[in-house]
Amino acid sequence: MTSWVRKPRDRNRVARRFVFDAGVQDISGLGPGAPLSRLLNLLGERETLHWLPVRHRHVVDGVVIDMPRDWAGLEQLLCTRFAEEAPGIRAFLGEVRLIHRDLYAGMQAARYRPIAQLPLAEQMQWRRLFPHAANAAGRPYGECLQRHIRNPTLLGIFSLLAEYVTDDPARTSLTDMVPLFGYYIDGGFYPAGGAQKLPDLLCRVIERHGGKIRLKTGVTRFTLCEGRIAGVELTSGAVVHAPVVISNADVASSHGTLLGTYDLPPRYRQRLRQLQRGPSAILINLGLATVPDMPARVFVKQGDLVFGLSNPSVLDPSLAPPGHAALCLLHLLPEAEAGPWLGLAPAQYEQAKEAHARRLIEAAGRVVPGLDRHILHYEVAAPPTFLRYIRSENGSIYGAARGQWCPAVRSPVPGLFLAGAGMATGPGVEAAVLSGLHAAHAVMDG
Fold first, then answer.
1. Is pTM, for the whole model, over 0.90?
2. Within a domain: 287
3. In whole angstroms, what is the distance from residue 112 CA to residue 188 CA?
């Protein structure tokens, strides 16, 4: 949720101002009762930011589909374009819609707490009231999709949304994927001015209520007293005392270097050791001397190559000079491919970044004709970049791989609570906000 400014000079030495984002350019969870709406309403900030509606385009091996932002329009378009698959499309989308309805109604009924934290009688009642959500838990998304759909292009369209949470759609469950269809129910949005606007808003709320934000302040370890959290020690050596710590650091760090030799339950420690980290990425931010004629969000599949393009300048001209655009290209790297990047010598690293950037820019040029001719500036982030800035193991950008156990927000360490993409709620802004709501309730519930 970070934005930054670059001012490259063109061939006439004129500086051009571009606002780039660190990958977040399409935010869900703003529908009625959804997590981000819930948070902003609780804070009294629902109308503070100007949210711009994002439209999606899917490009699957040359087939271009502009996706409507409403459910009926989506079903009608796909049934028209893929008439032979119409019965399966209706059945699949009908099942997704029922699960989606139950998930969000159930979220509100659970008062934004994890179902497992409710009293047993309430859990049983929840499952009776919201059977579609209850039955979706743990069910593979791919099985449901392939039960209804056969066309490879259509399978690609319904699988590309997985880019928001994983590099491997086969790992996703219905519970992972169905919330992503909310982009076609309640819509996805971009905060005018850049992704940084949302954390800036949250910082102001914290400070207004007496809290302090400490930037550029590293934490070296958690401090403990009689087996429970007592605060954190900073890189300066100072200790900040606190009876409760909510950590959104990488899960491995929260229970490794930061916690030290604390005697975690053996089963919990074993699960942490076995936790797969999920994808890292190649992220390219480009300053262009044109505004591409395409929606703000484009998903691309070219054979085995999958990447996403974000074109927020088509929504928000303030991100670049008139007639210019800030374009983002994101390509996920499986965990096995991310690791080798961390051992490269500086010269090898720069060569690898440039080689990957040229390949991806060339591929994007098939979607944005003439792209290469309009580039005024570009910068590339790779796994070591994410390792440096978010200190995640292997430079993982999504916290943990899907399709496996992930920790709950309440740690076995008394006083330590967890939040962020590595939790059971998963990656993405909406899911991270939900993990924060879960952590807040866990703290208040004692």
1. yes
2. no
3. 21
404: in domain? yes
Antiparallel, parallel or unpaired: β 245-247 and 416-418:
parallel
Rounded CA gap, 413 and 151, in Å?
Answer: 49
Task: Write the DSSP string, 131-148.
Answer: HHHHHHTT-BHHHHHHHH
Q: Give the model confidence (pLDDT) of 220-275 as tens digits.
A: 999 999 999 999 999 999 999 999 999 999 888 888 889 988 999 999 999 999 99
Residue identified by tokens 């709950």 is 408
Q: pLDDT value at position 84?
A: 96
Longest CA–CA separation in the chain, Å: 71
Count of structural domains within the chain:
2
Residue entry with tokens 């990488």? 250
Structural domain harbouring 424: 214-276+398-445
> What pLDDT does residue 120 have?
95
pLDDT tens figures, 35-66: 999 999 999 999 999 999 999 999 999 999 99
| Residues 6 or more apart whose Cβ sits within 8 Å of residue 421 | 398, 399, 400, 427, 428, 431, 432, 435
Q: What angle do CA 221, 225, 230 make, to 5 degrees?
A: 55
Assigned domain for 223 exists: yes
